Amino acid sequence: MPFEEIDHTADYMFRCSGRTYDELFTSAAEAMFTLMFDSRKYAGISRRISLDAVSPESLLADFLSEILFISEVDGIVFSDAVISVENSDGRYVLSAQVKGESFNSDLHAGGTEIKGISRSEMNIINRDGTYYTDIIFDV
């Protein structure tokens, strides 16, 4: 599994992994989708996200925050993401398409409300060809 929940005193922390930044960011998005809603599927709604940052950690935090913002403002339950991350001239550039369905209180009650993405434990490392990071979701 590309992510696992790690014990945390007050919030939710997940350890995410992937062989590439694309896989790592997808793993992080899937961890967040899983925490937010028990039931989710793709039903024709998608959003494109383009971001850049000076570090992969900043890019990941910005990306997850953007997904959270769109989900709350547009009432979308995201289920899948196709993500590309490139390092270009010292900046990390993300292009993503996130997919899902409209929020329906009959189908989507019971998830966990995420207030924000903490940057405090977010440190991306590469160990034996796999990227790892821990992410704390403030609830």
Automatic annotation (TrEMBL):
Single GO molecular function: metal ion binding
Highest taxon listed in the record's lineage: Archaea
Archease domain mapped to chain residues: 3-139
InterPro entries linked to this entry: Archease (IPR002804), Archease_dom (IPR023572), Archease_dom_sf (IPR036820)
Sorted UniProt keywords: Calcium, Metal-binding, tRNA processing
GO biological process: tRNA processing
Family membership: Belongs to the archease family.
Name this polypeptide is given: Archease
Annotated organism of origin: Methanoplanus endosymbiosus
